[in-house]
């Protein structure tokens, strides 16, 4: 049986869309008519996208991180309970209230019933199940430990989702603070400062430098402030368009790695993702050279991806993983040391996993500290701006008092 998407009319004339299983499109139409529906469109449930745009455990148009993690965990749990794969997929589809997940799971189940492997069935939905996911599932099928492999994938996706949610929640208050700061300062500069400054300009006295700067800034915001948001949007669009060019994106990613603070964060995130991917793949019996190719393909930094292709070539020619990653020059020394220890002791899978966990903890600690510092920095910046406005207004008043005395 295969999965079919349909669009049908109810007795009241409303359109109804969904997914059902049938041996053919004709059988699917007969099922719809038996339910009192008038079929308008019936077709195979397939993914409309291609491999382009698929990213490892990202919010892709197919499935989000949370949805993918939950689906993976459900399949692993049912397989561990001894339920056959096709029955597990059917149970998940029947209890799912999300039509998108139901459509995808039923389509995958249909492929499995047709005789395809689970990994081949997942390849029909490359946006929902990225390359790493499919390669790991394929390795799990070959090794006969699909449930354990899916459990590991579920752990990884859940950890990534939890960390992302933690950062997003921590950024809510600082972002609100930034918006309030901008609104307060803009209101002061547009509605309060001009009226106050008019009092001093009418006296004919020379205004202090700080006050003149405040007046110029207030005039600019009043006259041209409405152009700032469109200009920022236009600048962002230009940057996005330029970064679509491979040569410019390659140079930008290289510069990004060399920046003082941001570069360290990018290097940590990329190295953690790469080594974590290697740990999952090699632990699922994927050959090291093939695992390096898959792990390099899920990297976001083009410059680092090119360096890792050289590392893969070095390992393919008989070099060690430690030496190959050391030549990349952007992996933390501790991570390189742990990988070397794993190679020499024959426990590379375990040491890759530990190295990824260690780097992930360091990165999460750094990001958490950075987000924690962002709030007081914004408070200090807002206080400094308000202080400058107050001083710029008070200086002419003090000058007038001195003239009177």
Describe the structure.
The protein is mostly helical. Helices cover 73% and strands 6% of the residues. It contains 16 helices and three strands. The protein has helices at residues 25-34, 65-80, 85-95, 99-113, 118-122, 131-143, 146-201, 209-224, 228-243, 246-258, 262-283, 288-297, 302-316, 321-328, 333-345, 348-404; strands at residues 2-9, 15-22, 38-44. A three-stranded antiparallel β-sheet has the order 2-1-3. Helix 13 runs antiparallel to helix 14 and helix 14 runs antiparallel to helix 15 (333-345). Residues 47-61 have low confidence and may be disordered.
What radius of gyration results from the CA coordinates?
29 Å
How many strands, what sense, and barrel or not for the largest sheet? 3 strands, antiparallel
> How helical, in percent, are the residues?
over 70%
N/C terminus separation: 97 Å
Mean pLDDT: 80
Which regions contain 5 or more consecutive residues with pLDDT less than 50? Answer: 47-61
Question: How much of the residues is beta strand, in percent?
Answer: 5-15%
The shape, in one word, is flat
